[in-house]
Amino acid sequence: MKVQSIKFITSSSRLEACPPALLPEASFVGRSNVGKSSLLNSLFGRKGLAKTSNTPGKTRLINFFLVNNSYYFADLPGYGYAKVPAIVKKSWAPMIEGYLAHREALRVVVVLLDVRHVPSVADQQMKDWLDYHQRPVIFVATKIDKISRNQSTHAMEVIRKELKLKKEDLLIPFSAKTDEGRQELLRALESYLKPLL
Prior knowledge:
The protein is α/β, with parallel strands linked by helices. The protein has one domain (6-192): P-loop containing nucleotide triphosphate hydrolases (Rossmann fold), CATH 3.40.50. Helix content is 32%, strand content 21%. The protein has a seven-stranded mixed sheet, sandwiched between helices. The radius of gyration is 16 Å and the shape is globular.
């Protein structure tokens, strides 16, 4: 996949307010501050389109981006950040779960994991939830540039073991800083984002 055009479309707080489900979609989920916005900007080849922040919990709506006029990338709020007000967290759960469970155009979920940390209980719950709903998943280990090659090999093994990933489960090492893993992730996404019949 070559990203030739990208356009922010809308932010949605509920399934009914999402764009019409006429194009295939990929969604991006992960713990707060895992690097979702940075990854999206790397995929887009544009700085600042997806808003980055040092403050976890910044994304509070589902943000839709139209890619190549052919498919949507949906950026979901991060999970697992303790300092987000409880009332906000409570509103996120039905929004995220409703979207992931019922969005008809959703073809693949990209789960981001910080390679420097052992997957959290929330990461495991997300994987289990997606398995239950039979959503195809691409796992991405972000911030790979922040550790050495030896450390990264070990960290990837830890992620696979903790999440009980199968051999065929895709786990891509990724750096928004160096673009490592960018082409591999774009190719993987393209394999799922076939036109809807």
